[in-house]
Amino acid sequence: MTNVLNPTAIQAGPEAAAWKEVVRKYQKPSTWRALWQIVDTLVPIGGLWYLMYLSLAVSWWLVVPLAVLMGALLVRVFIIFHDCGHGSFFKSTAANDTVGFLAGILTFTPYYHWRWEHAIHHGAAGDLDRRGTGDVWTLTVQEYLESSRWRKFAYRLARNPFVLFVLAPLYLFVIQQRFPSTKSNLRERHSVYAMNAALLGMVVGLSCIFGLWAYLLIQLIALMVAGGAGVWLFYVQHQFEGVYWERGGDWSFVAAALRGSSFYKLPRVLQWFSGNIGFHHIHHLSPRIPNYNLEKCHRADPLFQAVKPITFFSSFKSLAFRLWDEKGGKLVGFRHLKNLRRH
Predict the structure, then answer these.
(1) CA quadruple 320, 247, 259, 270: dihedral positive or negative?
(2) Of the candidates 12, 76, 305, 319, which lies 20 to 30 Å from 148 by C-alpha distance?
(3) Which three-class secondary structure string do you get for 141-197?
């Protein structure tokens, strides 16, 4: 999947002013659309908790699918949380921070700490010299070949689909995000501690209602679904055929957005659950655009529509990608190493 755009050319040319003007139109948050998105997400989640409470007296065969559905809705909650972190969901900073913190409780994610790490990701996506924060661990072919046996084993383990989409999300949301980064400042560290306290209150409260083990199982199922789906979305957004990676000196912000971030064209129902984040090329071009405006912005300019989409079924090709081949300028699988040995 190659991209026909020449983002380096448009970055400084007259086309740059044109796309920036288009983007600017869609950066304006809508209070009523934001509030409706909160309602149509949180009301169903509240209803599911109530139905699961009633279903516990009947059968776990009723509870489990409801927990799975709640996990899918938590993906949508995370997109609201994500937009608040970018300051794009509401016009008001206070509203974004308040809703972002509350959404963080449901998604087990400390608001300010995540916002800080995610900002690093946006500033470094597609830059080979600035990998390592807020992204999927990716080695170049040469880096892998020069790694120790232990590092190669750890890397292969980390890139295993079961680890990447089942175990890693649980570790990330349940354990890793309970501890602040050593590089974080005071506000980010305090946001972790505040979130831990809020989560403790939620766990205790819901355990009193559902019973400890019933609550933990329901929450585990929901987090597995939400975490796995969320990591998969993030993976496909930056690990796909034709993706853009460059060293710092040759790195381009526009190229990283339009070629390094995918247009993941999902069926309408999945687009709704994922909060339109499939229009990731638009999001990286302008994180100030709220999710409910991403599709409109994408349709507003031929430049954006020239980005070839990844469909739901074609996205599974990304599972084969493991390493970045700098010489070939593409993602490759571990089989590529065997070809190198033959030559």
Answers:
(1) positive
(2) 319
(3) HHHHHCCCHHHHHHHHHHCCHHHHHHHHHHHHHHHHHHCCCCCCCHHHHHHHHHHHH
Residue partners of 281: CB distance under 8 A and separation at least 6 = 257, 258, 261, 262, 263, 298, 304, 307
What is the per-residue pLDDT for 41?
98
Residue 323 domain-assigned (yes or no): no
The range of the structural domain enclosing residue 62 comes to: 7-138+161-312
Q: What CA–CA distances, in Å, run from 72 to 107, 262, 300, 302?
A: 12, 21, 29, 32
CA pseudo-torsion sign 298, 302, 304, 306: positive
Among 105-109, 119-123, 139-143, 314-318, the minimum mean pLDDT is found in 119-123
**Number of domains making up the chain:** 1
Report the pLDDT averaged over residues 150-166: 96
Residue range 124-143: mean pLDDT, rounded: 90
Chain segment 52-76, per-residue pLDDT in tens: 999 999 999 999 999 999 999 999 9
